[in-house]
Amino acid sequence: MRHTRNVKLNVHHLTRVEGHGNIVVDVEKGRIRECRWEIPEAPRFFEAMVRGRMWYELHHITSRICGICSIAHTLTSVRATEAAMEIAVSPQTERLRKLAKHAENLQSHILHVGYLVLPDLMHVGSVVPLAASHRKELLTVIRIHRLSNEMSALVCGRTTHPQRIVPGGFTRLPARKELEGLKGRLEDCMADLQAVVDLVVSLASNFPSFERETEYIALVHPTEYPFCDGRVGSTDGGSREASQYREVTNEYVVPHSTAKHARHNRESYMVGALARFNVNQERLSPCAAAAAGAFGLKAVNCNSFMNNAAQLVECVHSVEDSIRLIDEILADGLRDEKFEVKPGAGRGVGVIEAPRGILFHEYEYDREGRCVNANCVIPTNQNHGNIQRDLEALLQTVLDRSDGEIELAMEMLVRAYDPCISCSTHYLDVTFER
Amino acid sequence: MKPKVAFFDFAGCEGDQLQVVNLEEELLDLLERVELVSFREAMKEHSDMYDIAFVEGSITRESDEARLREIRENAKLLVAIGACATIGGLNALKNVQDLEEVKKYVYGEDAGGIETCPTRPVDAVVKVDAYVHGCPIDRGELMEVVKALLLGKKPQIPNHPVCVECKMAENVCVFEKGQFCMGPVTRAGCGAACIAEGSICWGCRGFVDDPNTEAAEDVLRKYGLDLREIMNKFRLYTACSEHI
């Protein structure tokens, strides 16, 4: 049966992902003729558009690369500008930025697992029917999502496209009382998160058992499970400074995609929650480590579907670590810090772990602080090559199933990466003058 | 019967559809009153039978025009949401550059196969019945527009400058701090949200209908500012505007 099987799939605009992607499969008499992950997204050319713009506009513009991870883009952008102009920021700013990052990580991950992945595990087409069939569970997810958004607003001034984060510091600070209130709500949130972890653990057998060895790349740091700081590490060993990111990303062009692909030590690599977990497992917060235990997650885990589990583990970590950060900020006392940026010529790289993986921005400025060159390397961009190879490997293992089951497995695989496709299509490879 | 609602996106960051999800519990209440029939970002089901189409993103490819026209034909009402859809938005920054050079800068030698054209807002291609301005849209304003449409009314969108709301919010004027601001010529409705956070008005809601008469003239006079200078200086969101 298997050797005579014909399968034709054309998932034109995969649903429940950010942006537009297609899955094309053609199997003739059991032989795979085509298995392709296509990106037909409209390109937006951000790197070209920021040329000529002033340093104080760059983070505002590049934040718009992504509506879901706009905090990550803003942070990466201000860090690139700070690196280019040698601007130092205060410990308070560093802590508040980490809080902002945790808020976004929680928001993005709970949105993905709760609204986009859960329907697959519960055999429905979207979260809408769950409003009737699983209202209590859905309200728990919404409560966490609401808190993450309110946390972003409290720290950054808005949930999407934040306004307070600028090169050098914050234009406005949260009040002490607001942070104290937030801490209490984060403590309460731990029980909600535990309920979602329990729910997804109980449904985890619906994730296909699938393994394919690959390389995992994420930030590494001697003492932290890092999101905002560190070197670029790999499960294949070694690490590099962020400024050497091009030696990691090595992008190349593929014909069926407006997004480029990336490779490092192997033919492809993966970034995102599972990659961070695989590289940094031992530095998870205590409750996050327990959540990983509940999923039976152990580094190095090579099942891409478990990226969903790793996202939930990180939700717990982000909440627990935020409580610690708020304690530190309050113990030191919030100070209204004055900062001034003296624009100047230079080139700098910013790196941040966005929810979907490691993100790089590189800018070059002239003496007046006008942007001359820009490069942004997006997490999903780095994942496209790995998605393609995973799809090829997964297809081999599901050929004996029905067309519907094959389609669902392939869709779930891509969805597990939580791709952010509209971000990933403005990729470039410019040569900077050195 | 509940009105059927659909969401579509073109070139943009999908941050405005995210604001729909960010309605949180309120979204469940909304779903009691409308039937969601298409929302690619959140659901697998899809139907071409809908009453109200919400469109995010700007039109940057000729091939996207046909899809937008089809949406227009299917929908009784079409609502543009977010700056990319309502005024072209940041995507139009490329309109002031040489497009062939822009393609080459981003895609290098492989630029040949990349399709793009000058960025346009949705109403440059099809008729738009209502607008939800902003980058991103404000969830409260979105709900006001939805409620008005469900009641068969025309949504009320302010046509006075951000300066008016900024003064009511008692913010220190950005010009007073020696910075530049689009507030005097930008359509209000955001409550001067960015200025309240210590930033400036970037102009994401587009110009008031007739900036020549509607601009906050006392602000302009007080700081010796010229209307055209303000409108030309910051073309972040408004490169598609006829006023420039």
Question: Could you explain the architecture of this structure?
Answer:
The complex is a heterodimer of chains A (434) and B (244). With 434 residues, chain A is α+β, with helices and mostly antiparallel strands. Chain A has 14 helices and twelve strands. Chain A has a single domain (46-386, 416-424), classed as Cytochrome-c3 Hydrogenase, chain B (Orthogonal Bundle), CATH 1.10.645. Helix content of chain A is 46%, strand content 15%. Chain A has a four-stranded mixed sheet with strand order 8-7-6-9. In chain A, strands 1-2-3 form a three-stranded antiparallel sheet, with helices on one face. In chain A, strands 10-11-12 form a three-stranded antiparallel sheet. By secondary structure, chain B is an alpha/beta fold. Chain B folds into two domains: 4-150, 3-Layer(aba) Sandwich (Rossmann fold), CATH 3.40.50; 162-233, no CATH class. Chain B has eleven helices and five strands; from the N terminus they run βααββαβααβαααααα. In chain B, strands 2-1-3-4-5 form a five-stranded parallel sheet, sandwiched between helices. The model of chain B has no long low-confidence stretch (mean pLDDT 93). At the A-B interface, α1, α2, α4 and α6 of A face α1, α2 and α5 of B.
Poorly predicted spans of chain A: 426-434
CATH homologous superfamily assignment of the largest domain in chain B: NADH:ubiquinone oxidoreductase-like, 20kDa subunit
Classify the secondary structure makeup of chain A into a structural class.
alpha+beta
Strand order of the largest sheet of chain B: 2-1-3-4-5
Q: Write the element-wise H/E pattern of chain A from the N-terminal end onward.
A: EEEHHHHHHEEHEEEHEHHHEEEHHH
